[in-house]
Structures are given as structure tokens and as C-alpha cells.
Amino acid sequence: MGVELKSPATIDEDIALQPPEVQAILHRVRATIRRAAPGVTETISYRMPAFVLDGPLVYFGAFKNHIGLYPPVRDALLRSETSMYAGEKGNLRFPLDEPIPYGLVARIVKVRARENRKRLVARRKGRAA
After folding, report:
1. Res 9: pLDDT
2. Cβ-based neighbours of 59, under 8 Å, separated by 6 or more
3. Helix (H, G, I), strand (E, B) or coil at 124
4. Taking the CA of residue 48 as centre, how many other CA atoms within 13 Å lie in the half-sphere pointing to its CB?
5. What is the pLDDT of residue 129?
6. What is the pTM of this model?
7. Closest by alpha carbon to 99, among 37, 15, 24?
8. Which of 11, 75, 91, 124 could pair with 87 as two cysteines, CB 3.0-4.6 Å apart?
9. Shortest CA distance to 117 belongs to which of 46, 39, 59, 49?
10. What CA–CA distance (Å, rounded) separates 45 from 124?
11. Given 3-state DSSP classes, what are the helix, strand and coil percentages for the chain, each rounded to the nearest 5?
12. Are 28 and 106 spatial neighbours (Cβ–Cβ below 8 Å)?
């Protein structure tokens, strides 16, 4: 019988589990997301730090060799900009031995926030009809 690890209850707890050099990167990713999407709500979902704004926005996490960011990138321009970081399941992998593209993270979050807002408005219009 395996030992079940307790999932962190907050993003602060999740970040605190990482080595100090990775903590600094995660704090900056978190701050980048918060600046790009004012009013975002933080939570833990699927055992990962997650942000919600008019629906799920992005998830992120630290792994052995990379920082993972989990947004479905639908925007064609962003998809080409993120292709070098693309993982096999629609995730992005930012290698820890390379500079993290915080500006790209901010653009992804802004586009996702616009997409979420559009979907929310469309759903509301559909209910009102």
C-alpha cells in the first residue's frame, strides 16, 4: 500500500515545497499572471496552482527540469510563439536552465482572459434568448 502525499492547500504552500531557486521563478510566474489578469482568483486544482477568471485561466507547476504552464493555447499567433515550449498534452514546458519568457506568459494569460470573457458573455446571451 503506497503512501498518499497531502496536496498543498494554497499556492504559497505549493511554492514552499520547491528549492529556493525554483521558488523565486514560481513567485515571478505567479506575479506575472496576477498582473496580466487583475481580479484573478487563486486556487489549487488537480493538485496544482491554478488561476480562475471567468472560468479556468491557467495552471502552473514545477517539475524536475521545467516549469509547466497549462493553458490550451488556441490563438494562432501565440501557438507559433509557444511552439518551442509545447509539450505533448497541450502544456508548455519552460526549461529551468533557460530564461523563463515572462512576457510570453503575460500575453498567454491576457489572451486566455479575453477568451474566457467572450465565452462567458456568449453563454449569458444564450440564456437570455
Report:
1. 94
2. 45, 46, 48, 49, 50, 51, 68, 69, 70, 71
3. helix
4. 19
5. 53
6. 0.89
7. 24
8. 91
9. 39
10. 25
11. 45, 20, 35
12. no
End-to-end distance of the chain based on CA atoms, in angstroms? 54
Please state, in angstroms and rounded to a whole number, the distance separating the CA atoms of residues 36 and 116: 14
**Per-residue pLDDT of the chain in tens (129 residues, 90 and over written 9):** 555 567 899 999 999 999 999 999 999 999 999 999 999 999 999 999 999 999 999 999 999 999 999 987 888 889 999 999 998 888 999 999 999 999 999 999 999 999 999 988 888 887 765
The confidence score (pLDDT) of residue 2 equals 58
Length of the chain measured in residues: 129
Residue found under cell 497541450: 90
How many other C-beta atoms can be found within 10 angstroms of the C-beta atom of residue 51? 24
CATH fold group of domain 11-128: Aspartate Aminotransferase, domain 1 (3.90.1150)
